[in-house]
Amino acid sequence: MSLIKSIVISGATHGNEKTGVELVRKWQSYPEIFEKVCPSANVQLVLANPLAMRLNRRYVDQDLNRSFSENSLSIQGGSLCYEINRAKELNEMFGKKGECTKTDLLIDVHNTTSNMGACLILSEKNPFTTMASAEIVKEFPETRIYFQPEERLASPYFGTIAKADICLEVGPQAHGTLLASLFELTEKIVLRYLELVEDYNKGLFEKREAKLVEVFTQWKDLDYPRDASGNICAMIHPDRQGADFKELKEGDKIFKTFDGQDILYHGETVFPVFVNEAAYYEKKIAMSLTKRTMENW
Ligand SMILES: [Zn+2]
User: Fold this and answer.
1) Which CATH number is 222-287 given?
2) 282: phi then psi, degrees, rounded to nearest 5
3) Residue 64 Cα, ligand 1 centroid: separation in angstroms?
4) What's the pTM?
5) Which residues are found with C-beta within 5 Å of the ion, ligand 1?
6) Each residue of 237-282: pLDDT tens digit?
C-alpha cells in the first residue's frame, strides 16, 4: 500500500452510538489536533447518519452500515430509503468505492452493548492496518483484533469505500448513552492510530519487527433458538453473558429458555463476540462465533 494521505474519521454511522457522535463533534471544534498528530495526511471528520443521530436511533429506514455494497450504491435515481441516498452521498464525498477512491483510510467509530472492550475490526489484512493494530493491542490491554474478511466491492460496510479501514467497536455501552471511560479510551486509540499513520508515512514500519498477536477470525453467526412461529424462545445463558472473547466448548451452557432450561453448545471450540448485542436481535444474531489464532503481524 502506498502512503496514507487522506483519512476519514466517522461517528454516528449508527445514530445512537454516542461515543463516535461526541468524539467527532469534539474534534470538529478543534481540527488543529490532526495537524499536530498526523501532519502528513489530510483528516476529515463526518457524522455519517445525522438524521438517525438527531432521532437517537440506529437508523431511519435501514442500517446505513449495510448500505455500501457496490449493488446498493449503483441504484439509480433517488430512493425512498434515507440510508440508500445517504450512502450514495457519502460515497460521492469520500469514495467512490473502488481502486480510485479518494480515501486511503477510514476509521469508523461504533459502540456495542456487548462486552467487547475496544475491538479492532479489520476487513482485510493490509500492511498498515495489521501492523498498526498489532501495536495497539500491545499498548492497550482493553483491545482485541477481530478479523472479519470482506470481499471489498460486495461488502455493505461504510469502511469499504476506502482503500483500508478500521472499525472500532467499543463496549459495553447501552445505545443512546455515554460512558466516560470508553469515550476516553476510544479517543486515545484513534489518536494512536493517527500517530502510527505518521510513522508509516515516514517509512518507519519497514524497519519494524512483526509482533505475535491473538487474532479472532469470524467463522459464523449464531441465532437465538426459535419456536415454530419464529419467536425467540431462549436468552443468552447467564454464564455466557459478558463472556465475549472467552472460549465456548462442547457442552458449555449457552442459552436459557424462558422456563429455566439450560441449552448446551455442541460443536468445535469457538470464541463468541457480540454476545447479546441489542441491535442484532433484528438481524437474528445472538452472537458471532470466531476462531482464535496466534499470528505474526
Ligand atoms: Zn454501530
Assistant:
1) 2.20.25.160
2) -70, -20
3) 9
4) 0.97
5) 14, 17, 110
6) 999 999 999 999 999 999 999 999 999 999 999 999 999 999 999 9
